[in-house]
Write a structure and sequence with these properties.
It is built from 18 helices and six strands. Helix 5 runs antiparallel to helix 6 and helix 16 crosses helix 17. The protein is mainly alpha-helical. 54% of the residues lie in helices and 9% in strands.
């Protein structure tokens, strides 16, 4: 006899759900809460049932005032059971499909994810891990082979190593194993592996945008003026009355962006929004393809994303805009902003700045 406790399954992990007292230091009335057991469904259902009975008994004793309910002990039990379950899986082996699923569950729990989380998972984790599907037993050697099948010093290798290390973390491998997998992806540098893009001048950008039909002119001019991503311009962007760009969603979530140069807003009447038709179910990662096609149709020598790079370089040359503000406006971190764009600040730029000094 005890308080009713339900079993729930998330992925292949079993959780307990019951009316429970709030976790300290929170106070208040009991409410529905969950405890992760780490146990695997269906292999460890009997162990989960035993835990549920024990939890129900302790909750009843708490309600009767016979003992305090100790949240910390149940959280420790959950962590311990999870470690035991994972180690049991590793001892007999886990197949590739289950390894990917466990990694997905682990990845989701690491931090709050934005609306673009599914696209990030698809590109940075699921795609590099596809070769694990159908593998009967995943271990360190299989994950290492996954990385070594890619070319050294490439972005693909770096991404695959990151994904393989995520699998290792999800399956509770030792830290030394995780480190070996990550180190196997070293050698790629965005700065060292790629030459600076041949970016168009502002004069060429103006000439090209002027040649576009209005429905393509607006999103292209917004990208050029505010440095936003193609899918942001096509789906989430609006220029407000104060001349800032409001982004309501996308890869890095909502933000405000500043214009540079500001006069381009009036030049192309960017407060009057007009867009090409886009299918509602088109993923954000693919939505920019309509601009790519239009650029090629116009015989344009640069790509839509180059307009974002041009904006970034403009912010570097503008002393009134700090790198922190520029990074925030573009929707990425200061570290990413510095790593990707400071390389465009070449000797010519430095010489032009020197000429302006007293």
């Amino acid at each position: 006899m005890g308080v009713p406790v339900s079993l729930e399954v998330e992925g292949k992990r079993i959780r307990l759900r019951a009316m429970m007292p709030p976790k300290p230091p929170t106070t208040g009335s009991p409410r529905q809460q969950r405890i992760s057991t780490g146990l695997i469904y269906p292999q460890q259902v009997s162990e989960a049932v035993d835990l549920a009975r024990r939890l129900g008994s302790e909750l009843l004793n708490h309600q009767l005032g016979q003992q305090m309910f100790r949240w910390e002990e149940w959280e420790r039990k959950g962590n311990k059971q999870q470690a035991i379950a994972i180690n049991q899986q590793l001892s007999v082996g886990i197949n590739g499909d289950d390894a990917i699923n466990e990694t997905w569950i682990w990845w989701q729990k690491q931090r709050a994810r934005s609306a673009s989380a599914a696209a990030t998972w698809q590109k940075d984790y699921l795609s590099p891990l596809r070769s694990l599907k159908g593998v009967l037993r995943v271990d360190e050697s299989v994950l290492a082979s996954l990385i070594e099948a890619t070319a050294p010093g490439t972005k693909t290798r770096k991404r695959t190593a990151m994904a393989a290390a995520a699998v290792a973390r999800a399956l509770a491998y030792e830290e030394t194993v995780i480190r070996r997998l990550k180190d196997n992806g070293k050698g790629y540098s965005e700065i060292n592996s790629a030459k600076n893009r041949e970016l168009p001048t502002d004069e060429r950008i103006i000439e090209f945008i002027d040649s576009l039909p209005r429905k393509y002119q607006w999103p292209t001019a917004v990208m050029a003026t505010f440095g936003c991503r193609p899918h942001e311009a096509l789906r989430y962007a609006t220029v407000n009355e104060k001349y800032s760009l409001i982004i309501t969603g996308g890869k890095t979530g909502p933000r405000h962006s500043l214009p540079l140069p500001k006069q381009w807003i009036e030049m192309w009447e960017l407060q009057n929004k007009e867009l090409p038709k886009i299918k509602e179910n088109t993923p954000d990662g693919e939505i920019g393809s309509c601009l790519n096609r239009q650029f090629k149709k116009q015989g344009c020598e640069f790509a839509p994303y180059d307009l974002r790079h041009c904006f970034a370089v403009r912010t570097i040359m503008e002393s009134k805009i700090s790198p922190t503000l520029a990074a925030k406006s573009m929707g990425h971190s200061l570290e990413v902003h510095t790593r990707k764009y400071q390389r465009y600040f070449d000797s010519k730029n430095i010489e032009s700045i020197i000429d302006l000094l007293d």
